[in-house]
Amino acid sequence: MTDFFNTLPYASVVLEPLNDTFVTKRLELYEAVKIGRKVNVKTGPEPTNGVFDSKVLSRNHAEIWQENGQVFIRDVKSSNGTFVNGSRLSEEGQPSASYELHSGDEIEFGIDILNDDNVTSKHLLEGL
What we know:
Layout: E1 2-7, E2 10-17, E3 25-28, E4 33-37, E5 51-52, E6 62-67, E7 70-75, E8 82-84, E9 87-88, E10 99-101, E11 106-109, E12 113-114, E13 120-121, E14 124-127
Parallel strand pairs: 4-5
Antiparallel strand pairs: 1-2, 2-3, 2-14, 4-6, 6-7, 7-10, 8-9, 8-11, 11-14, 12-13
């Protein structure tokens, strides 16, 4: 479930896992927040950042930001897609248009993939 908290001068977004793939995150949108996969030990997943430890995400997967009191998301050429309420925002490897988010929207980052060792990496399913 995703909730918005509009506080001056910026909003925040709470991402809650719907499939136990991460801990709840609160993203402060004083600037655009990049969503992506952990790429080094210095930048790990935290409850206040857009970094996830998941093989289904691209290093640079999506962005969430606020503009004029509204919250938006866009896919930034990810391989496995960004979905809002089940609809993919763009084709594989293509950037999407900006999409306005609303409280209660479900966001999915990536799709389930089967690793080389036959273990399934689950996509990240979040509610706003």
